[in-house]
């Protein structure tokens, strides 16, 4: 299932109001804009909606108003959620024009029951989503698509440590537990699980892709950190020292351990470990990557973007990236761009869906992609003075 559009507002009619006008998306998307225009916030909105409809997150914010439209095999799924003071005021699910859920204040509403072939009344606590609380694969199977979409979201903050500061302490009984694929800092655990389940095919895929983006590695694995001294009660370590990732670079004689791997290399490595694990697990995902390319040089940033786009094109993954890096912008075709512009409290999106002529006209200017943003050509095209 692919997110086709999302609209959002928060704290309407107050000084804190914030609006995201309709953001239409394709399978591959690059959200660009100047600083403080709302790029990260937009990705957070999508990620938070996924966490809500999957039950992974409660209503932790005071206010929110979502309208999201999805496409699944040419079927249109519309989901509406509105809440204030962490109390749900409205929740609706409409599939191909047919209302299947309609919920109002106080948690009361109507829901279609498939086995009974009729609409029935229900009541759910006003701080709980009906699509989560009433999830039932027999009577209400239409919630499953929304649930699976929310569960499949992976949100990577590329400008952060991305797990470099997380080592692994795994007692044997804990080692058998399933990983939460949304905990993107637990990269050591992802690698351990990936290698345990898929062996050399897992590591070889990572090594090949790291080579494609300019990191020549001969080996990758997990081991105790030999140069790291950590003090603490013995019970914390359960008899096993903390473990981290190591790599063997082709031009170095020894291993480089997690604490000494450069931040840029580790970000790329962490992202590829997690994406390859999800791919081998056959999890169709919505991948959100904020600040993509941050900390990488031009060649590696360019190669990583190209690799991610190719991976998305060959799969059912929806890729949504955000950046204000000119190197990234210049190497992602404009057809994938969505430019975000904030005026006061309102964010507007310009992309091929709503501004096709302007996007097409820009190809005649001979300028590079970054100039499309810096000159604000996306607003009026050749009509600008």
Keywords, please?
about 375 residues, 3-stranded antiparallel sheet, about 30% helix, 13 helices, Rossmann fold, alpha/beta
CATH class of the largest domain: Alpha Beta
Spatial sequence of strands, sheet with the most strands: 9-8-7-6-5-4-1-2-17-16-3-15-14-10
Q: Poorly predicted ranges (pLDDT <50, ≥5 residues)?
A: none
Domain module count: 2
Distance between the termini: 43 Å
The second-level CATH architecture of the largest domain is 3-Layer(aba) Sandwich
Mean pLDDT: 91
CATH topology of the largest domain: Rossmann fold
Give the helix proportion (percent range).
25-40%
The number of distinct β-strands equals: 17
Characterise this structure.
The chain has 385 residues and is α/β, with parallel strands linked by helices. It folds into two domains: 1-157 and 285-385, Rossmann fold; 161-283, no CATH class. Helix content is 32%, strand content 30%. It has helices at residues 39-53, 130-133, 143-152, 172-175, 187-198, 200-212, 234-237, 263-280, 298-313, 326-330, 352-362, 369-374, 377-380; strands spanning 2-10, 18-24, 28-32, 63-72, 75-84, 87-95, 98-103, 108-113, 118-123, 153-157, 217-224, 243-249, 256-257, 286-290, 318-323, 337-343, 346-351. It has a 14-stranded mixed beta sheet with strand order 9-8-7-6-5-4-1-2-17-16-3-15-14-10. Strands 11-12-13 form a three-stranded antiparallel beta sheet, with helices on one face. Helix 1 packs across helix 3 (143-152), helix 5 (187-198) packs across helix 8 and helix 6 (200-212) crosses helix 8.
């Amino acid at each position: 299932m692919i997110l086709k559009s999302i609209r959002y507002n928060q704290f309407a009619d107050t000084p804190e109001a914030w609006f995201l006008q309709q953001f239409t998306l394709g399978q591959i998307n690059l959200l660009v804009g100047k600083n403080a225009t709302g790029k990260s916030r937009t990705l957070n909105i999508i990620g938070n909606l996924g966490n809500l409809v999957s039950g992974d997150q409660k209503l932790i914010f005071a206010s929110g108003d979502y309208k999201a439209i999805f496409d699944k095999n040419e079927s249109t799924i519309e989901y509406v959620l509105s809440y204030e003071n962490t109390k749900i005021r409205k929740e609706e699910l409409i599939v191909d024009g047919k209302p299947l859920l309609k919920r109002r204040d106080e948690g009361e509403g109507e829901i279609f029951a498939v086995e009974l072939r009729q609409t029935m009344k229900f009541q759910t606590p006003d701080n709980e989503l009906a699509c989560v609380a009433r999830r039932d694969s027999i009577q209400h199977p239409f919630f499953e698509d929304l649930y699976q979409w929310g569960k499949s979201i992976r949100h990577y903050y590329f400008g952060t440590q991305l797990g470099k500061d997380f080592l692994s302490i795994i007692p044997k009984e804990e080692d058998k537990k399933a990983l939460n694929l949304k905990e993107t800092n637990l990269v050591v655990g992802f690698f351990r699980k990936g290698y345990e389940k898929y062996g050399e095919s897992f590591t070889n895929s990572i090594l090949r892709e790291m080579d494609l983006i300019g990191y020549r590695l001969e080996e990758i694995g997990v081991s105790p950190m030999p140069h790291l001294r950590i003090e603490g009660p013995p019970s914390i370590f359960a008899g096993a020292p903390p473990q981290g990732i190591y790599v063997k670079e082709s031009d170095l004689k020894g291993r480089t351990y997690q604490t000494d791997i450069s931040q840029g290399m580790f970000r790329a490595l962490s992202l590829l470990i997690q994406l390859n694990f999800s791919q081998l697990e056959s999890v169709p995902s919505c991948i959100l990557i904020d600040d993509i390319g941050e900390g990488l040089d031009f060649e590696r940033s360019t190669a990583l973007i190209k690799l991610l786009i190719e991976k998305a094109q060959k799969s059912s993954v929806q890729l949504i990236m955000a950046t204000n890096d000119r190197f990234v912008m210049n190497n992602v075709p404009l057809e994938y761009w969505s430019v975000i512009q904030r005026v006061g409290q309102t964010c507007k999106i310009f992309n091929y869906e709503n501004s096709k002529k302007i996007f097409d006209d820009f190809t005649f200017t001979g300028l590079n992609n970054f100039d499309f943003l810096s000159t604000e050509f996306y607003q009026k095209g050749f009509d600008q003075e």
